[in-house]
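Title: [Solved] Glutamate dehydrogenase 3D structure

Original question kept below for reference.
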Amino acid sequence: MSSTGKQKEEEPETAAETARRQLERAAAHLDVDRGIIERLKHPDQVHRVSVPLERDDGETDIFTGYRAQHDSVRGPFKGGMRYHPGVTEEECTGLSMWMTWKCAVMNLPFGGAKGGVVVNPKELSNEEKERLTRRFAEELRDFIGPMRDIPAPDMGTDAQTMAWFMDAYSMQEGETQPGVVTGKPPVVGGSYGREESPGRSVAIITREACEYYDYPLEDTSVAIQGFGSVGANAALALHEWGANVVAVSDVNGAIYDPDGLNIDEIPTHEEEPEAVTTFDAPKRVSNDELLELDVDVLIPAAIGNVLTESNAHEVKADIVVEGANGPTTTTADEIMEKRDIHVIPDILANAGGVTVSYFEWLQDINRRQWSLERVNEELESEMLGAWNDVRAEVEERDVTWRDAAYIVGLSRIAEAHQARGLWP
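Solution (posted by the thread starter after getting help):
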């Protein structure tokens, strides 16, 4: 193969390209009208807005914001809102598609959306971030709402961002509308357990996968890339349940102890940003090396496109549980499938976030807050239900976990489209 051809193969695919390929793979297993498949390859709408921001020094900068709304056949659009310099229309489109599948796999009455602003939040003061958020809320106001499109926190945004967004929307609407976003602080309508929920669901699915493949949790070694909200909460739960978490990482690198790390003592990103490598451990490795450690379970829980054609042959884990969105490229997926590595997809594993967002939305509509105990019990029930639905397809059709999850999701979406029909 020429060096040019090799370089082309190594270029990371976009989220939208990956999502469309996964859609086609699932469609091949189902008798679904091709018109529905073609509709699902494209978002219903993508909104592009300019967001002016007055900086603290009095200067005005203009930022670009996006909101991709993929499909709403099963309910309002739902998805994260990120502040990151790498935000693009194509990325938002692909992530909104994944949200559609994720909500369908979990059997939630939502469709998929995703959005954000092209900005480095680390370069904003707290006051600038608030002004940017309030203006972004105003620019999107005609396209969002508790029964239309419900944003949530994502990369570079948090509970405070959602509180500002909700307040700005409510002020313009003339009444408090807590249901316009999820992931808010509990004091203004947020749900207990929301922040921990994606990581907790990753831990639940990891536990179930280990049981399914007869890996006693107390004898199972786990490496986790990323120690933010998803990675840290997955690590803490698995550590509590007896798993041997041997490696964790942040943007600066990873720490590794084959005898197991004391996860309780490592500061999370929220507690102390980028502190993982300052923790005392026998060995430090790079984020790339963490992916190739000799462990039973690997959890990529940081960013997308980290498992690629170039390293998929070097993965030594028997089970991969996707904590991040889109950490595995299509080619890497195919390589690991041939190597009998079981990849549990993101649209199942990290769906705890949107599931507890659904709980929050219900609480806001009913103006009745749930206890943390109830949230965790309901999350456990929903995750086990989705796991069993996907497991049934794996066993019945002899397909990969990713294909099975897409089959579950696509069949529900297609059935809804079939029932509602096409507006002439």
